[in-house]
Design a protein that fits this description.
alpha+beta; 114 residues; 5 strands; two-stranded antiparallel sheet; 3 helices; three-stranded antiparallel sheet
């Protein structure tokens, strides 16, 4: 097809679409404003409950096996004993050194892997 034929075809398509009557638009009624009740806002702002994972995580390295949940418990106990805030706790396990390092809002430290 030549460019001229394509232009004529496009012109016909445009004419058909512009001359067609537009479909009637349904009328949208304004809904009454919804006000929030105090009970709904209290329920939405409640803090979510944090639960333990539904699985066990084990770290295996050179004939050694370490349970991540047990390590986390030991580290949290050590943080409490030292008076550290363990709210922002991060645990780094380094099996080649046989240590688990941790960092929290109260400081840093390490424990020996058993």
């Amino acid at each position: 097809m030549s460019k001229r034929t394509d232009k004529k075809k496009q012109k016909r398509i445009n004419e058909v679409h512009t001359t067609a009557a537009p479909a009637a638009q349904p009328a949208v009624e304004a809904a009454a404003p919804v006000t929030a009740t105090p009970e709904a806002t209290v329920a939405e702002t409640a803090t979510p409950v944090v639960t333990a994972p539904a699985y066990d995580l084990f770290i295996q390295y050179q004939n050694g096996e370490y349970n991540a949940a047990v390590l986390a418990e030991k580290i949290q106990e050590k943080c409490k004993a030292e008076g550290m805030d363990s709210s922002d706790l991060k645990i780094y396990v380094k099996p080649e050194d046989k240590k688990a390092y941790y960092a929290c809002a109260g400081g840093t430290g390490a424990i020996e892997l058993a």
